[in-house]
Amino acid sequence: MVSVSPWSVKGVEPEAREAAKIAARRSAMTVGQWLSQTIRAAAAQQLADTAQPLVETAPSPPPPQPAPEQADQGDNSLASQESYPVEALRAVEAGHNAPPPVSMDEAIRENIPRLNNPIEDSESKSRAAIASPVDQVEQLSERIEQVREQSPLLTAPVERAVSRLSERLEKIEAARRTEAANRRWSLFSNND
Questions:
Q1: Contacts with 103 (C-beta within 8 Å, 6 or more apart), sequence order
Q2: What is the DSSP letter of 50?
Q3: 61 domain-assigned
Q4: Distance separating alpha carbons of residues 91 and 84, to the nearest angstrom
Q5: Is residue 13 within 8 Å of 89, Cβ to Cβ?
Q6: pLDDT tier at 36 (50, 70, 90 boundaries)?
Q7: Whole-angstrom Cα distance, residue 88 to residue 86?
Q8: In this predicted model, what pLDDT tens digit does every residue of 58-75 receive, in sequence order?
Q9: Has residue 59 been placed in a domain?
Q10: How many domains does the chain have?
């Protein structure tokens, strides 16, 4: 039974992934535990060898040990199925024998630009994506301010017209009230 587990390390060939899974299974560890152990061992070896020129890029991983259930079963078919990925991993390791940097400081200095480039690219893309909406908001803000400044100038003629209409209406209503009062007075005077 082969379980499919997610793999999030980019740039690792499928054969190397499979070899790591198999080695982890043989060591009765998860892939993450096995990788952590292997990386720690490689880093410790590199730190120990910083004074000496390095011949290999990383030490060989610890020898695989059969998982408890495999040791009890004595199943050799698994070993034959696993030989191809292990050989592929060894071939990949053999192809990468370039000497590493002399010290950790040098390795860090060499990798900083390589690591910074994607970050800077991402930041510039983010700035470009944000710039357009920011510009649009600024333009809308300016237009709103212009309308606020022009509002009294635009509404002044309407306000004057409403005021004149209001005065006329009051005069007309006052005249009607006076006329109505006069009619009542004349009716009252005529009835006496």
A1: 50
A2: T
A3: yes
A4: 11
A5: no
A6: confident
A7: 5
A8: 455 555 555 545 444 444
A9: yes
A10: 1
Residue 58 CB burial class (10 angstroms; 0-12, 13-18, ≥19): middle
68-116 pLDDT tens trace: 454 444 444 444 444 555 555 555 555 555 455 457 778 778 888 888 8
- What does the alpha-carbon distance between residue 50 and residue 102 come to, in Å, rounded to a whole number? 6
For residue 77, give its domain range.
14-100
Q: Are 35 and 98 in contact (CB under 8 A)?
A: no
- Amino acid 79 reads A
Could you give the C-alpha distances from 183 to 171, 173, 179, in angstroms and in order?
Answer: 18, 15, 6
110: in domain = no
Torsion of CA 36, 30, 24, 61, to 10 degrees: 10
Largest CA-CA distance found in the chain, in angstroms, rounded: 137
Report the predicted TM-score, pTM, of the whole model to 2 decimal places.
Answer: 0.26
Report pLDDT digits (tens) over 127-145.
Answer: 888 878 888 888 888 988 8
**Does residue 84 lie in a domain region?**
yes
Determine the 3-state secondary structure of 172 from DSSP.
Answer: helix
Between CA 14 and CA 88 the distance in angstroms is 10
